[in-house]
Specification:
Layout lengths: L5 H30 L14 H35 L1 H12 L3 H34 L7 H32 L4 H24 L6 E3 L3 H13 L7 E4 L10 E4 L6 E5 H6 L2 H16 L2 H24 L2 H7 L7 H16 L2 H23 L3 H14 L7 H7 L5 H17 L1
Parallel strand pairs: 2-4
Antiparallel strand pairs: 1-2, 3-4
């Protein structure tokens, strides 16, 4: 059981603030949707009517309500693990079942991972077969969903072991400076994942084929040549077998970098719109946004691991939470929960940087195309096709949004069009 002292009060205060704030933030956004009088924005008048807008708002409200419920249930579950003594029980069980510091730690974290995986299953099932099904997006069946969950569990388990096993070994071998060597180890794994995800992980879930539309393929090829882009290719992903949502993304580094277009995007957009979406993704590549994000994250990782090592040596942490000093796995878990709660309140600057990257990619695409028209139309069609929130709460945007809200983004492109026309 947790002892009541300054440390436990501080931990529980930060934890509770995170959970409550998450729920209130989602409710704030949902309430804005439900309370506002639906009016079609001027920029969307040719693309959506009042009936469609009401359905889009209902979809966003349903997702927001589920997110609030998920935050509450997840928060209670994690706090229950820490306060009930389950962590100590799992630690003792791991020591009894296997021998060795690294093996025991791996089993401990694997048990926790499976527990959280099982906790997430009902939410994922409800989202897929209730919300997505109700609004016409789900194209999956239970068999496909189950196999996806199993594959996801296996892949995530391997990634977890690749991250944790070296760190546990380093804690044992270098007890005072493992944080530095652990940083190098985790950085290598992260870079490896970025490199290998497009060619090893993603194909386990989807098929990636060359663009089969000859005319579109030629337009895309000319655009990549104009941008001086060298990648592993532009691929069509069979996203439509699971969902009706449309999207595109840039992934990988070096020889594994590639641009992926959902088949639903290609099938529901005109060629010029698909070209504009590709130009935006090329912007991310040419401006090195993926690499910049990784490089900005590495100093944060180094600082976090340094203070994790310091906290893991703090006797008060073990006495407060009733942990065994000889087996610090539970302490590492509690420290990880603490960092997760702290990082939550640093979302705004991270989100602001991401929104800046998106605006820069839009500007790059517009200059590359010589116009903002096709990109604007593509964004409008994507928003309507995906039932995006056209009227999010400004505070929610500031805190959470990785992309500029659509109305702001379209207005930005509108203002950019006039200078392009005069060039």
């Amino acid at each position: 059981m947790i002892k009541i002292n300054a440390l436990s009060v501080a931990f529980l205060s930060v934890y509770s603030l995170h959970v409550i704030f998450s729920i209130l933030l989602e409710r704030l956004n949902v309430r804005r949707l439900l309370a506002s009088d639906p009016q079609v924005p001027r920029l969307f008048e040719p693309f959506v009517d009042l009936e469609k807008l009401a359905r889009m708002n209902a979809y966003c409200a349903a997702k927001g309500s589920m997110a609030a419920m998920h935050a509450g249930v997840h928060g209670i579950a994690v706090l229950g693990l820490i306060a009930s003594g389950v962590l100590t029980g799992l630690q003792r069980l791991s020591v009894q079942l296997v021998s060795g510091f690294v093996q025991t730690g791996l089993l401990f974290f694997l048990c926790l991972f499976v527990l959280f995986f099982l906790l997430e299953l009902p939410f994922d099932y409800y989202y897929t077969f209730s919300i997505e099904q109700r609004f016409g997006f789900n194209r999956s069946d239970v068999k496909t969903w189950v196999f996806d969950q199993i594959k996801g569990l296996l892949v995530s388990t391997m990634v977890l072991m690749a991250l944790i096993a070296p760190v546990l070994w380093l804690i044992r071998v270098f007890p005072w400076d493992w944080w530095f060597w652990g940083f190098l180890s985790v950085a290598v794994v992260e870079f490896s994942l970025v490199l290998l995800y497009p060619v090893l992980v993603a194909p386990l879930f989807n098929k990636f084929d060359p663009i089969d539309d000859v005319v579109l393929e030629e337009k895309l090829r000319k655009l990549t040549e104009k941008a001086g882009l060298k990648t592993g290719g532009v691929f069509r992903m069979d996203a439509g077998k699971r969902s009706g949502h449309s999207n595109a993304y840039f992934t990988g580094l070096g020889k594994t970098r590639r641009i992926v277009l959902y088949d639903t995007l290609i099938d529901s957009h005109e060629h010029d719109e698909v070209v504009a979406v590709l130009a935006h993704e090329i912007g991310h590549f040419r401006l090195r946004h993926v690499l910049k994000s990784i490089m900005l994250g590495l100093p944060i990782l180094l600082i976090v691991l340094y203070f994790t090592q310091r906290l893991a040596e703090w006797d008060l942490l073990y006495t407060t939470f009733g942990l065994d000093r000889a087996w610090p796995y539970s302490a590492l878990f509690i420290i990880a929960v603490f960092w997760q709660n702290v990082w939550f309140f640093f979302r705004p600057p991270a989100a602001a940087l991401s929104r800046r990257f998106e605006r820069d990619a839009d500007a790059f695409a517009s200059r590359l195309l010589g116009s903002t028209v096709s990109l604007s139309i593509a964004l409008k069609r994507l928003a309507v096709h995906n039932f995006a929130n056209l009227n999010p709460h400004p505070f929610y945007v500031w805190f959470n949004y990785s992309h500029p809200p659509l109305m702001e983004r379209l207005s930005y492109l509108e203002r950019m069009q006039q200078p392009l026309e005069t060039e």
